[in-house]
Amino acid sequence: xxxxxxxxxxxxxxxxxxxxxxxxxxxxxxxxxxxxxxxxxxxxxxxxxxxxxxxxxxxxxxxxxxxxxxxxxxxxxxxxxxxxxxxxxxxxxxxxxxxxxxxxxxxxxxxxxxxxxxxxxxxxxxxxxxxxxxxxxxxxxxxxxxxxxxxxxxxxxxxxxxxxxxxxxxxxxxxxxxxxxxxxxxxxxxxxxxxxxxxxxxxxxxxxxxxxxxxxxxxxxxxxxxxxxxxxxxxxxxxxxxxxxxxxxxxxxxxxxxxxxxxxxxxxxxxxxxxxxxxxxxxxxxxxxxxxxxxxxxxxxxxxxxxxxxxxxxxxxxxxxxxxxxxxxxxxxxxxxxxxxxxxxxxxxxxxxxxxxxxxxxxxxxxxxxxxxxxxxxxxxxxxxxxxxxxxxxxxxxxxxxxxxxxxxxxxxxxxxxxxxxxxxxxxxxxxxxxxxxxxxxxxxxxxxxxxxxxxxxxxxxxxxxxxxxxxxxxxxxxxxxxxxxxxxxxxxxxxxxxxxxxxxxxxxxxxxxxxxxxxxxxxxxxxxxxxxxxxxxxxxxxxxxxxxxxxxxxxxxxxxxxxxxxxxxxxxxxxxx
Length: 578
Known about the structure:
The protein has 578 residues and is an alpha/beta fold. The protein folds into 2 domains: 7-162 and 192-265, Spore Coat Polysaccharide Biosynthesis Protein SpsA, Chain A, CATH 3.90.550; 268-574, Rossmann fold, CATH 3.40.50.720. Helices cover 33% and strands 21% of the residues. It contains 17 helices and 28 strands. Strand 2 (32-33) and strand 3 form a beta hairpin. The protein is globular.
């Protein structure tokens, strides 16, 4: 996993006075959870995602932290000692079930009473890369560090802090309108966000730090410049501030250590095959699967996908899903999960060349399903369909039980493939599930005939945006990473074979609305022209995704504004359309 050698500063210098039962003789980061210092737990979280370079900002009883890591090899390994010369040999006890820690650590004494902003400033000499991370030495979370770093890179600002929901230290009382008590909520998770650490900064952040600063002082200087972004972590987070917190985390370690992502039994690697893995959605899906530790095989004929989109850790076969010989790839790679995304993806191209679109989208799907049927060992098959499969409907929003009645070559091809996928479940009992997407946008989409990439190209190149429709057609726009999360979640729901799930958002706009919103978000004027050349266009279309919310516990997490900014920053950083 590429991590660009980003260093992580862990703040280890505080005295931990509210935890004096444990910190009288040791620094707070050395207080143990399950027999290991909380500092070790934090480092394991980062290390799980490939980040192993740490700078420890030491202060109170910092020598204890140094001693722990300096002697760790001898304490955790079998050793041989020669009593005459004092020579010690440590044997390698590394096993798959108990791997030896692989950390690179810089220990730096940043002062006993130094505030944590100044501690970071004192470590500037050790930060040679463009980015670095900072976190507190007393908080753990099941956070995805790679997603955090990607979020920071995409938005292009100086600072990212992670927002988490704290657990209230007091029970809350809920009442009805007439003041009748309806519920005692015992220490609920609070709705608001607090800074939970796990911060990412550009090196420029040092310019905003001063001696005597807290980190928040520098953030306050950046906020008026709109240079601070919040990464919203909706999962587990807990800070160890008091003795009760210490007891709670140790109890949780024995029962369900949610932050122990480095040994998550539910994240075992699987062989996964993705057709269309060089395309827009497919490449985002492949990246996420690899990030989760899976082995991924990609089949793509590169007719619309790009080879450079393919994650270098994926195994790539340039092949067409219509070709029956791809059964040999299945035989060789033995996938357990199949995501079928390969398709002719553009409505306008299907109108110009219906035969190829229908053959690819329908017979390509049949070929994949038939290969899976013959293998009889596939655990899950996810066939990606589209909102276009519903065709035109007077009733909105579209629900999964609505008839599929596409009457445009592209729409009909998606309707047909969708029905055929359902047939393979009902006839052969195969573990097939179907996704129906709304319009998807985000990093990786280079089809500039689509409205969002077209807007980005227009802004970056300062060129006229040509609108094929009359600008009034209404669609639903969902960010690609939310779509990917839904697909992956769906693969684990084996009880829903033969069913379809809509994936959408609350971003329901006309084409003109999209342009106006992009102008506000990107703070620029977009020059556009209505061509009105679209053929057989569906006037209004958006999905009801209640089913995915209730059964899969899925919902889109990315706001339209955030998605537009990340897409724009991605295109600019890639210099693809400059």
